[in-house]
Design a protein that fits this description.
Chain lengths: ~260, ~300, ~375
């Protein structure tokens, strides 16, 4: 306990409520409200409608949503596989190598997503590697952006993991492959799921690189939301954002449930 | 004994050789991904920045871009915005985390969950919601009775971007700080109070020194993220708020001036990698220091 | 007449729906050492926290030297508190830890310096001023925590399980140290929370036994040990065997409801496994309630030939002697501590048990 008197505690809570409400809670509430607003000229919407949400799950918007889901799933799966692979392989490498790997794999965090997009444009716009104009360049960009998180989460989990378990398994006569499949990976499941959650959330909301790279047939939902905002369709944009958040949430809850089951064992 | 040892000895040299190279071979696939899709393109960006559109190699593009007023303006704006937003996030985040951690109230857990949820949100969401809150036809203007074109008109300028970044990145400060606060045993606060220290003294002399590494590394990270923020700037769409990432975007796909875009990109990357290095250093140096103390204390902790 | 150092009047503490302390009335005199003894969850630590001001009582009042401090925050109470894991400030050196309370009082620098030197010398830590807590052993951290609490010269020192984090040898040493401090600071009242009866017996003038958020019994240490009035006290303080007995002839002088002989020496007659014994009722025994005899293991005698017939269930060697597990013919079990097992039959065979007269007789409650 830091504050002992009831009066100062109440004052503190009041300040907390005002600041948190104005700075964080109110903006979050706005998007939800706008998604179902029919007309909005006063403090609160004058009427409510589900029309924008319906628009957001049909036609172009629906196509965009599906693109986002596919991009998110592929990129996060690839990031988790690649990141976990690197983290596990780096464990048994000599210390200097491990340090280099660690630095290189964390580095994309420090590079703005727009620059990731630009660099892929520069590198893959001409043969022999012509990816520009295909959906692959978007997928690659998302992979590069979320990979550090896949690697970081798994690597941190390995730091905390008890090395004795793998040693015991080996002492019982299990081959390295068996130790990996039956002991190390199952123990890592919660971390893998956490890494996938983080990667999925980031990929679903990515704009910077995508807006530099997207081909007409692979437009993710955030890019569509920007287009809608640009056209002045702010309510549709809100509805699309709500759909995006909903899809992300479904993914996170699914992964969370998997994590819960893995942790129970 | 010898019967078992002999075959081992016979295969030992080759085995040892294999042991040495196997980990590196295993590292190859993920490293190829990073090198091919991240390092190689980034190297090409650096090269591109040194080649002018007419094909000459040299610092001509650099000279041209770096001295241009739009670049210096963008650089200044980026630094000001990220420093300002970070200061706001650190102040606000520390205050909110303090209240959540040390004077919890019913519903504090829900608030913590909301804070966690924001971490999974895209940043442009905040910019979008600001349109409804502070836009010319937004709630605030309606509440102040202005109707469209009301008295509140800061959104489409630097202050709008700043406030949006504070809103979005405050949770990023709160999380590590909350984790650090959770490490401070409540018994220390109790004992400090019993020794006669008022809340303010306890905060300054007991709580903050413990949270300082988390605050420092959180500050670096927030500086980095606000500097590289793109979604908010793009969505707010303020004409006079051009940051470095925004300039890369404009040069890259609006005017298709790749060499200039690459120059801006290199500057941006150098700045943010420098910040990132400081962040990692702070994290490692201060973090391990504290971890050592934590372990020493953990020996006494039955929990 | 001066007011007691600490007084609790009907203090209850709730944490959400759970009641951590129920209507506690307790007085600690000036310079007195009181031990709050009980198992975990008995409310003893909560009682201490209510005195320190770390928890706010749901009802009741807390008085320090006659002043009602129920609503005062801890920093206005001026008490010395030593908690279980010491809670030394990890980023401050030993001297700064000890000076913390003095600086909070804005004491001049020179005096702070003097006082720190003085209390560190008192706990034998004068050579460790410049160390950080993490560079100290558990016992040394403990000494610093005590020095920090004593530096502000509190009228009352509150100690919450101060020895529980130490190993056995160190605990003995610190116990002796605390006894020495008691002698050096005769005017400082001490409230000592522990689950260890040995510590309570060694340190306290009076003991308050607690259980399930309630005060079971409070009294001078020797009285509680020798003449416990509650079954729980008998078993917790001194680990007595509680043997269900039948009251044959009840009631010493002064107690009412007697329907049997009043013996001149104030002892009642009870029947245990068919044999008659004389026992001392430590309080009123309402007619008809079941009673139990509290017999300490070291008072039980075991022989091969004489006494109550029993079966030897097991023997543990404890270094200084042996602990025997026995079963009487009526099925009740008891423990006996003896110095030798020479001449005793093997485990599983029959032995004789004798229990001395004058063991405390208490109402048998819901079991210990």
């Amino acid at each position: 306990m830091l504050v002992w008197t009831r009066r100062s505690r109440l004052l503190l809570w009041l300040a907390f409520g005002v600041l948190f409400g104005v700075v964080i809670a109110a903006p979050l509430a706005m998007v939800g409200l706008a998604a179902v607003a029919g007309t909005w000229n006063g403090v609160l919407p004058a009427e409510y409608t589900t029309g924008h949400l319906a628009d957001a799950v049909s036609g172009d918007a629906l196509a965009s949503a599906l693109v986002s889901v596919q991009t998110g799933l592929i990129a996060s799966l690839a990031a988790v596989v690649c990141g976990a692979w690197a983290a596990l392989a780096a464990r048994s490498a000599p210390a200097p190598v491990r340090r280099v790997v660690d630095t290189v794999l964390h580095l994309p965090v420090a590079v703005p997503s727009v620059v990731v997009g630009l660099s892929l444009l520069v590198a893959f716009s001409q043969p022999p590697f012509l990816l520009n104009g295909t959906r692959w360049i978007v997928l690659v960009a998302h992979l590069v952006i979320v990979l550090p998180f896949g690697y970081g989460v798994v690597s941190a989990a390995l730091d905390r993991a008890d090395p004795v378990l793998a040693d015991v398994a080996a002492s019982l006569g299990a081959s390295p492959a068996r130790v990996l499949l039956r002991v190390r990976l199952p123990l890592l499941l919660p971390a893998l799921s956490a890494a996938a959650s983080l990667a999925l959330a980031l990929s679903m909301g990515e704009v910077g690189a995508t807006i530099m790279l997207y081909p007409p047939d692979w437009r993710t939902l955030p890019v569509s939301v920007f287009a809608q905002t640009d056209r002045g369709e702010v309510f549709l944009a809100s509805a699309s954002t709500a759909v995006l958040l909903g899809l992300t949430l479904v993914g996170l809850l699914t992964l969370g449930a998997a994590r819960g089951r893995a942790a129970e064992r | 004994m010898t019967a078992v040892a002999a075959p081992v000895a016979a295969t030992a040299p080759r085995e040892r050789e294999r042991r040495r190279w196997a980990p590196l071979l295993w590292l190859a696939p993920p490293m190829l991904v990073v090198l091919g899709f991240f390092c190689y393109p980034l190297a090409l960006v650096v090269r591109q920045s040194l080649v002018s559109e007419s094909g000459e190699v040299g610092l001509a593009v650099w000279r041209h871009v770096v001295t241009s007023p739009e670049f210096t303006a963008a650089l200044g704006r980026t630094v000001l915005l990220s420093v300002g937003a970070t200061a706001g996030c650190v102040l606000l985040g520390t205050f909110l985390a303090l209240v959540l951690a040390f004077t919890p109230f019913p519903g504090a857990r829900v608030v913590s969950r909301v804070v966690d949820a924001v971490l999974a949100f895209p940043s442009f969401l905040i910019a979008l919601s600001f349109t409804f809150l502070y836009g010319s036809a937004g709630v605030l203007n309606a509440a102040l009775g202005g109707g469209a074109g009301g008295p509140v008109d800061f959104l489409y300028g630097p202050w709008g971007v700043l406030l949006a970044e504070v809103t979005f990145y405050t949770p990023f400060v709160m999380r590590p700080v909350l984790a650090a606060f959770a490490q401070v045993p409540s018994a220390q606060l109790d004992v400090a109070a019993s020794l006669g220290a008022r809340p303010w003294r306890v905060l300054r002399q007991v709580v903050l020194p413990e949270a300082w590494p988390a605050l420092a590394s959180g500050t670096c990270l927030t500086l980095l993220m606000t500097m590289n923020e793109f979604g908010i700037v793009l969505f707010v769409g303020a004409k006079d708020v051009i940051t470095l990432p925004m300039l890369v975007h404009t040069k890259g796909i609006v005017t298709f001036d790749y060499p200039a875009a690459c120059v801006v990109a290199v500057v941006n990357v150098v700045l943010s990698v420098a910040l990132y290095t400081v962040h990692r250093w702070v994290f490692r140096v201060l973090g391990t220091n504290r971890a050592g103390e934590g372990r020493a204390g953990a020996g006494l902790d039955p929990a | 007449m001066t007011a007691p150092a600490v007084e609790l009047r009907g203090v209850s503490v709730h944490f959400g729906r759970t009641v951590a302390l129920r209507e506690l009335d307790l007085v600690v005199g000036r310079g007195e050492a009181l031990a709050l003894l009980g198992p975990s969850g008995s409310g003893k630590s909560t009682a201490l926290k209510a005195v320190a001001g770390f928890v706010r009582p749901h009802s009741g009042r807390v008085l320090l030297s006659g002043v009602d401090v129920t609503d005062a925050p801890p920093h206005r109470r001026g008490l010395g508190v030593v908690v279980q894991n010491y809670a030394l400030f990890p980023h401050m050196r030993v001297a700064d830890n000890v000076a913390f309370g003095l600086r909070a009082r804005r004491m001049p620098r020179r005096e702070v310096e003097q006082r720190v030197t003085e209390v560190l010398a008192m706990v034998g830590m004068a050579d460790y001023r410049r160390r950080y807590p993490r560079e100290l052993s558990g016992g040394q951290q403990q000494r610093v925590a005590i020095a920090r609490a004593l530096a502000i010269r509190p009228p009352v020192l509150l100690l919450d399980e101060p020895l529980s984090a130490l190993d056995a040898a160190l605990r003995e040493e610190m116990l002796a140290e605390l006894l020495r401090l008691r002698r050096e600071l005769p005017d400082t009242a001490m409230v000592y929370v522990t689950h260890d009866q040995g510590e309570a017996l060694a340190l306290a003038d009076r003991v308050a036994v607690m259980r399930d958020a309630r005060l079971v019994e409070v009294g001078p240490t020797a009285q509680l040990y020798h003449r416990p009035r509650a079954e729980f006290t008998a078993s917790f303080l001194g680990a007595a065997n509680l043997l269900p007995v039948e009251l044959v002839a009840a009631a010493p002088e002064g107690s009412d409801g007697s329907d049997g002989t009043v013996r001149a020496d104030g002892l009642a007659t009870v029947r245990l496994a068919g044999a008659e014994l004389r026992a001392e009722p430590t309080g009123p025994l309402p007619a008809g309630t079941p009673v139990a005899l509290g017999v300490r293991p070291h008072r039980v005698e075991v022989r091969a030939d004489a006494g109550l017939p029993a079966r030897l269930l097991g023997v543990q060697w404890r270094g200084t002697g042996f602990r025997l597990e026995l079963e009487l013919d009526d099925g009740s079990r008891l423990r006996a501590d003896v110095s030798t097992v020479d001449g005793l039959p093997a485990v599983g065979e029959r032995v004789g048990v004798s229990i001395p007269d004058g063991c405390p007789l208490v109402p048998a409650g819901a079991g210990a």
